């Protein structure tokens, strides 16, 4: 088990390193002179020179790359050119919105999808199953940001149950914060829940066709007992894979949803940074998100080991 | 007979079509302490009979008729009542030990579950019961905390048996319990079932396609074909004096000896010298690469022109690897394979002339053909090896000729492979092997997946073709009866090495190596009962 | 044929028809701004009404269909065109250099959701429809490569491939003659699924301003522009949203229907 996780961890760490190299090359080498790019064509030569010095552009690219990596390791993500403040602090504030939102949505999606998948699998081929499948088919087709707009229209504009957007900050209390994140989380979770429910149903039905389910039935288990005691756990492996993949979609989705609800998260930060050509901020945010995705992949690997004894062989 | 299982007029209908029972239905009886062998070829309805009795038929299948266990009518029970019967009164064992256990649950828990679902047993007590059941099936050395993947196929089948007998049921249904096992584990598992039946006095419905398996252990036999029982009676009288023509055909097929032509051994056609083949095995280590599994450990052999050479061994012995090496498909670590003196292998520069001299027939009649091509194209595929191969009408004639040689019609060339039965597919595979006029055909378990009667006819065909085209065979099989019937010489393989070789009759009647002796002792035989 | 397949086919035909129609005819010029006619409801002149600049909504939906279709088609084409051969090659030489590279590259690209790729590209080259295509296309390569490799590896284990090797055929020839045709069903189904995902991704990128740029209408940007007016003119948000839902739904139903139609297990059960 240790060896399996160590191998996976090493391989993912390698992916992380290569990812950082790709990000660095795209943002620092492809544009030619990042300082001139960030300031635009009409910038005065002395301003450009000042920024070049600030960014350390007189150094060779390899040295800058290593300095960037070293800085990140110490928690130093550089200084935003537009806001003149350390990027690390800015990101930390925004993560406080984006991460809870993604986790909230993931929890919602899983909590809806797994029971729904079980329900449909237990009644496979019957009217209830067909109904659930039709609903999930529709759920997959709805863009989350459009669903967000509809939720705003109904629950904020018409019913006035929720604010149309904005975030009071966690200082206003956990409940107030959660309330502000509820509509965005529902909008993010609904399409993902539809996908996950379909995957869970398909995995369960496939597992129900396995020989060991017949063995369980031959022991005297009812169909329901065979489903919950034997099929569910075996079906968890594909479900875990999808949950892991969904986290990266949720993070990316959160970036977009934040724009609908005017939430001060990483998404708003990165789009502002793009329009202001603040490459230091873009680079850090993208790196952070990639890190998160890879970390989640590793967590899913650990979950596999916990579920499947065949991977525990050392 | 009031005790035990009594089946009367059992029939199964799917979507209005009667798939089991015929007009009069299936009637059978299994008394307490009795073993009834239910024999039939694939699709005869023998497994469906078992599923109907245990009320585990797939959705949409409707069973009618009566099935009483100790006087209790099973067909009238509700699903919930039936759940109380399965596992407690009826224990079941299935064919595939590799997939019949939940891979994520320790074996002890899986055995204990039988006790726990039937109530009354607390966790600790169920655990003790499971331990006792595992001990009874000969797994005393195996901790209950083991997972299925840590056990061999034979051990897994024992776990399945432990689950089935944990509550000492009245009836044990065993559906092809040893078909997926090697002969030596098969013999031990059959012994175990026989012992448990005697000890517990339970009835046993033993379902199999293999007459030899039940010949030694069943008290009575029931012969089934096309969903109907055609003959029942005590084992000795059914085998010794069969009444129904189907039973006679089945027995003839199981003991069939094709007439192999007498031929003089020619020069050496194929030879291997010091063949070593290994694969990575187990997880990759961080340093130093992976552990390696040696499929061939320095094997040497010779095969003469006009000879039929047998290669026997259990699964994992390396016999298929050796067969693929002779076909030039294996990347050998060392050693060399020569056909007519010319080296072959994935890296060797082979003249098409050498390459086409060796063709092959594989085991799986379903997987051996690309389902998207018509028979004509499938059979003609090896023409790839023939420079200036015939085209157009000449090619069509060659395909028709090859199909004719294996007893198929010229019109079959336009069909797709799914339109043929298993036995017909193996004939098409032979036609494909014949089309380049090879000198050697490697037959890798080529008749293992076909029913007894089709197998007998294919063996006849192989004998005829050997004489007609002067073919040599490398005949790979786990089945000693078949090898005895079709080969002149035999090699016995174990763990990547050839442990014994010699003329087939001599080796099989006077084995020198202890492993050969064990194999022969374990192989079920039909002749001994006659 | 199933009801889903028919519904999906009809929706896809509608989508394709709208895109093709927009090439030759739209009721109004999509770029024509007429402030006097702004926010009109549906009428004979404007079937779906007008937006806040007085542009004809129906015409914009038609052209938007074309943009969605073009972006998704090219992006999935890039993904399948590069991913499938890579997957075939990786499977043919299992454990070889290409296999190792494909597996590693897959891991890497999966760490970048398509939106992040788009953000990186846009940060350097500025927003455009081409960038959306490239971003979605890059993300699709490992999807197809992984699928192809996995399914091809299973096929390489089959006896008919062994028979082709006995017939002296090489890796490339077997891949083309035996492996690819047997993967075709699977790839067609996956392509329709990726196509619908690409339409969703294009809409999302346009919505945040990383996709097609004005004056080219796109469904995603129409939604973005409608957002501030959602309280007074919900129609502006409903129409393009429904267009996206119907197109994606149609493709998904078509994909599922094709899978059932082509799946050998289902086909055998039906025969």
From TrEMBL, chain A:
The chain crosses the membrane at residues 101-122, 134-157, 169-190, 239-262, 282-307. The keyword Mitochondrion does not apply. Residues 95-300 form the ABC transmembrane type-1 domain. One of its GO terms (molecular function) is dipeptide transmembrane transporter activity. Keywords: Cell membrane, Membrane, Transmembrane, Transmembrane helix, Transport. GO terms for cellular component: plasma membrane. It is found in: Cell membrane. InterPro entries: BPD_transp_1_N, MetI-like, MetI-like_sf. Its main location: membrane. It is a multi-pass membrane protein. Belongs to the binding-protein-dependent transport system permease family. PANTHER family: DIPEPTIDE TRANSPORT SYSTEM PERMEASE PROTEIN DPPB-RELATED. This is ABC transporter permease.
TrEMBL record, chain B:
GO terms for cellular component: plasma membrane. It is found in: Cell inner membrane. Residues 5-251, 276-520 form the ABC transporter domain. Keywords: ATP-binding, Nucleotide-binding, Transport. One of its GO terms (biological process) is peptide transport. GO terms for molecular function: ATP binding; ATP hydrolysis activity. SUPFAM superfamilies: P-loop containing nucleoside triphosphate hydrolases. It is a peripheral membrane protein. Its main location: membrane. Belongs to the ABC transporter superfamily. This is ABC transporter ATP-binding protein. It comes from Amaricoccus solimangrovi.
TrEMBL record, chain C:
It comes from Amaricoccus solimangrovi. The keyword Secreted does not apply. Residues 65-255 form the ABC transmembrane type-1 domain. This is ABC transporter permease. It is a multi-pass membrane protein. It is found in: Cell membrane. The lineage of its organism: Bacteria, Pseudomonadati, Pseudomonadota, Alphaproteobacteria, Rhodobacterales. The chain crosses the membrane at residues 67-92, 230-255. GO terms for cellular component: plasma membrane. Keywords: Cell membrane, Membrane, Transmembrane, Transmembrane helix, Transport. It holds the Pfam family BPD_transp_1. GO terms for biological process: transmembrane transport. It comes from the Bacteria. Belongs to the binding-protein-dependent transport system permease family.
